[in-house]
Design a protein that fits this description.
Distance between the termini: 93 Å
CATH superfamily of the largest domain: NAD(P)-binding Rossmann-like Domain
Structural class: alpha/beta
Largest sheet: 9 strands, mixed
Oligomer: single chain
Number of domains: 3
Number of strands: 22
CATH class of the largest domain: Alpha Beta
Shape: elongated
Length: 642
């Protein structure tokens, strides 16, 4: 059809704002004679046509001034909404007020040869102008939408919106304004029975069961389901997302209404659902008003600053404007990437950063850093953390995770750091691998410092589970495997892990640094552990793949040192609450003979230097009797000796 090529050529062009101004000005001019006719009950003999046209021209000029003042003509007609309607109403009110003001001037200065307008005609004209300008805009918008629906079905994306309240309505408006894709709202979904069966701006409101009927989805070709409810309970959100994914829909989440207020309505603010949204618990948010005073204008050292946790700690610290932020890492490329990222942020904050290439095991170099900058707070995130890799290289786990931490702790005591915060892991609890054992021994050394009466540093430990999206975690691995077409590899069908997001983990570290007084091991209430197999299935669905015909999940068996289920507390530990219901303190009942412990660490050091792996692991097991290897070459060391 001849209209189709015309549509293809002009569909994404806007009507010139000057053409809009001309159209609305002409409409105002034409409506004044109509208003006069209505004022005089269409008695033509009572109307002087020439005089009426002169007055129409004058009132049109007055309205033109109002149009220019409020720039109401600048809006895109095909995106006309409530905001534009309000602006037109205010503009027309101002134009009509100019007419009444002209009448007052003519009465006060009767010598001026200014035409007098009938008050009734001005009022009628003002109402007609507002109504017809708005109707004209919505008519053009409707014609455009019909035209798009007829000739651009391939560009149309049918969607559902969960929530018919304020957030749902502004989400609808953002979809209407989207230019890259054409969205068609099929229905609102709402749990409130009093809203179901009604229409909102011509769109039906339905129950979730009716909207998620497979026949209904297929009939309308629905492709997306958008959650637009503020503070929706995590259980309801997860159920909605899983039902949407089961129907082959793309699930998305609109930001809270307060965020809409800070931005122009835009589809870019509606994000796709991430695996973090399916943790089965509400996000953990900590708001400590004392955090700023604890960080602001302090000299702060972050080790492992280029890693997933260290870099996010650094980003969060910068928000509180430290006097100097020392970012230490031995990974040159990763630290450079962080430097480039932070350089694009505030110049003022970036100037507070010092990027330092250094291995924490290099005592002389670390001593220079402490001597030069005198840090007041230390966040120690540098560590080797990959379980199978550390099973193969136990000397590296001991060198960095244990001995590196020991050297950093000793420097912190020597240079009177106010607080030292260790980033630990749940794998340190009843460890079954080298990595977990090395982190537990590091915890023990950090905690032991608080027994010194002359110690001016508060030594604090934070312990949490797996961090979603961090380097080496299952999420990036699964995503890569899914993108390549599979298979997705899971070690065991029943393996479970506790999960938290990177911001949650780093928020805990900062909170612990603020509230800790020394000797504590802070742990999170992270809800129920997540089965990794279920996580894999959800990720496959989130990425729009099919586990039946496309992506397969295969089981590879537990890796060396790997546990089936992680724990947050050892058998000898209890918990006590803190001021936040999601944060607890692990209280250990173990007695540590510190002098013997130091001798054992010295022995570890000698085994590391001699690369004596077998005796190194044997010494670690001696320090930690609860360390029992699982599926590892070092399991023989756990056997009873004859």
């Amino acid at each position: 059809m001849i209209l189709f090529p015309l549509y293809k050529r002009y569909s994404r062009r806007f009507i010139s704002r000057w053409l809009v101004l001309a159209m609305e000005t002409l409409l105002v001019f034409m409506l004044y004679p109509v208003a006069v006719l209505m004022r005089y009950n269409f008695q033509l003999e009572d109307i002087n046509l020439t005089n009426t046209l002169v007055k129409s021209a004058i009132i049109t000029l007055l309205y033109l001034v109002a149009f220019l003042i409020f720039s109401s003509y600048r809006g895109v007609i095909r995106q006309t909404g409530l905001k534009d309607t309000k602006l037109i109403a205010v503009t027309v009110l101002l134009g009509g007020s100019f007419g009444f003001l002209t009448n007052q001037i003519s009465f006060i200065w009767s010598t001026l040869d200014v035409p007098k307008f009938a008050a009734g005609a001005l009022l009628i004209h003002m109402l007609l102008s507002g109504v017809f300008i708005i109707l004209m805009r919505f008519f053009i918008k409707a014609v455009y939408n019909v035209f798009v629906d007829k000739y651009s079905r391939k560009l149309t994306i049918p969607v559902l919106i969960y929530g018919s309240g304020f957030t749902g309505e502004i989400t609808r408006q953002s979809l209407e304004k989207e230019q890259k894709n054409r969205f068609k709202l099929i229905a609102f979904i709402d749990d409130n029975p009093s809203k179901q069966g009604k229409n909102l701006n011509g769109v039906p409101v339905m129950s979730i069961d009716k909207a998620f009927n497979p026949e209904f989805i297929q009939k309308w070709g629905i492709q997306q389901a958008i959650i637009a409810i503020d503070r929706l309970r995590s259980e309801k959100k997860e159920i909605f997302i899983e039902r949407a994914l089961a129907l082959g829909l793309q699930a998305r989440i609109a930001p809270p209404s307060e965020q809409w207020m800070q931005h122009d309505l835009s589809i870019k603010h509606i994000k796709a659902v991430n695996i973090e949204d399916l943790l089965g618990r509400a996000p953990i948010r900590l708001t400590n008003p004392e955090l700023k005073s604890a960080i602001a204008q302090k000299v702060i050292l972050v080790t492992g600053a280029a890693g997933s946790i260290g870099s996010e700690i650094s980003r969060q610290l910068l928000k509180y404007e430290p006097a100097c932020l020392l970012l230490v890492d031995q990974a040159e490329s990763a630290l450079y990437d962080l430097q480039m990222e932070l350089s694009s942020s505030s110049d003022h904050l970036f100037k507070q950063c010092q990027f330092i290439i250094c291995d924490i095991g290099n005592v002389s170099r670390m001593k220079e850093i402490f001597e030069q900058f005198r840090p007041e707070l230390v966040y120690h995130a540098a560590a080797y953390k990959h379980v199978p890799m550390m099973e193969a290289f136990p000397e590296e786990a001991a060198r960095v995770n244990i001995l590196g931490t020991r050297k950093l702790v000793d420097l912190s005591r020597k240079y009177k750091v106010k607080k030292f915060v260790l980033v630990s892991t749940d794998k340190a609890v009843n460890p079954t691998n080298i990595m977990g054992a090395s982190k537990r021994i590091a915890e023990m050394y950090v905690q032991a410092q608080n027994q010194y009466l002359d110690c001016e540093t508060h030594f604090i430990t934070t312990r949490f589970g797996n961090v979603l999206g961090s380097n080496g975690s299952v999420v990036p691995l699964f995503r890569s495997q899914i993108e390549k077409g599979g298979p997705v590899t899971v070690t065991h069908p029943q393996i479970t892990r506790y999960f938290m997001t990177i911001p949650e983990a780093c928020n805990l570290v900062l909170e612990a640094g603020s509230m800790g007084t020394g000797g504590e091991i802070f742990i999170f209430d992270m809800g129920k552990p997540v089965r990794i197999y279920d996580l894999a299935l959800k990720m496959i669905q989130l990425m729009g793949k099919d586990t039946g015909k496309g992506i397969q999940v295969t089981f590879t068996g537990l890796r060396p040192g790997e546990k089936l289920n992680e724990e947050l507390l050892s058998d000898s530990e209890n918990v006590k609450p803190t001021h936040h219901p999601k944060i607890m303190i692990a209280v250990s009942g173990d007695d540590l003979e510190y002098d013997q412990f130091l001798l054992n660490l010295d022995q570890l050091d000698s085994f590391v230097k001699n690369n004596d792996r077998l005796n190194l692991v044997r010494a670690m097991k001696y320090i930690l009797p609860q360390y029992v290897s699982n599926n590892s070459m070092y399991s023989t060391l756990d056997l009873p000796r004859n």
